[in-house]
Write a structure and sequence with these properties.
The structure is a single chain. By secondary structure, the protein is an alpha/beta fold. It has one domain: P-loop containing nucleotide triphosphate hydrolases (Rossmann fold, 3-Layer(aba) Sandwich), CATH 3.40.50.300. Helix content is 55%, strand content 12%. The chain has eight helices and five strands; from the N terminus they run E-H-E-H-H-E-H-H-E-H-H-E-H. The protein has a five-stranded parallel β-sheet, sandwiched between helices. The protein starts with 9 loop residues before the first strand and ends with a helix. It catalyses: dTMP + ATP = dTDP + ADP. One of its GO terms (biological process) is dTDP biosynthetic process. Phosphorylation of dTMP to form dTDP in both de novo and salvage pathways of dTTP synthesis. Its EC number is 2.7.4.9.
């Protein structure tokens, strides 16, 4: 257990498909590792992170199946992957005092299955309650972009590894609404970062400042 029996911080980045999370995390994680060179920094993603969680990810994404997955089945699969990765990666790293940075969390399920799929935000939160338990992010940075822009990026992208990236504007709009509803229920955990019309460099600067500010406060 780290100094003072305090768990290491768990920071999550959320947002619509094609909002630029992966790009921003590739830029951000090395900055955090340089700033906190004396402390372990663990990067992971949901769904995935462990071999078993990654296998469930492949199943949940459903790209290779002809029949459409039932939405409630989808919600439970993501929850199952989450239950594995949180206990095998996130919590052990926190116990070691590491800084954990994650690409997505249960808030993705809240927004996608709860909001866009219509299962209801509070229902999806209940489905994830046991999977998540007390392993919850200390801070979530929600990259907020116009759904129209994310749909445009998805349309011209050659990467089709996520079944949600081929959805239409209505779907993206509902996902965004789900995120905003989740933010209202998060008791301040979710910090909305408006990235509309900003360059990669500008967003990077904002996220570096916000992340380092949070970490400085956490370790003080």
């Amino acid at each position: 257990m780290p100094e003072g029996n305090r768990l290491g911080p768990y920071i999550v980045f959320e947002g619509l498909q094609k909002v630029g999370k992966s790009t921003q995390l590739e830029l951000l994680v090395p900055v955090v590792r340089t700033k906190y060179s004396g402390r372990e920094v663990v990067f992971t993603r949901e769904p995935g992170g462990t071999p078993l969680a990654e296998a469930i990810r492949v199943l949940a994404q459903g790209m290779k199946y002809d029949n459409e997955m039932e939405y409630v089945c989808e919600a439970y699969l993501y929850s199952a992957s989450r239950a594995q990765s949180l206990r095998r990666i996130v919590r052990p790293a926190q116990v070691r005092g590491a800084i954990v940075i994650a690409d997505r969390s249960y808030y993705s399920s809240v927004a996608i299955q709860g909001g866009a799929r219509g299962l209801d935000v509070e229902r999806v939160m209940r489905i994830n309650q046991e999977a998540v338990d007390d392993i919850r992010p200390h801070r979530v940075f929600l990259l907020d972009e116009k759904p129209e822009e994310c749909v445009r990026r998805a349309a011209i992208s050659s990467d089709r590894g996520d079944k949600f990236e081929i959805k239409d504007l209505e779907f993206y709009t509902k996902v965004r609404e789900g995120y905003l509803e989740a933010a209202k229920l998060s008791d301040g955990t979710i910090e909305i970062v408006d990235v509309s019309g900003q360059s990669i460099e500008a967003v990077h600067g904002v996220l570096v400042t916000a992340t380092l500010k949070f970490l400085e406060e956490y370790f003080t």
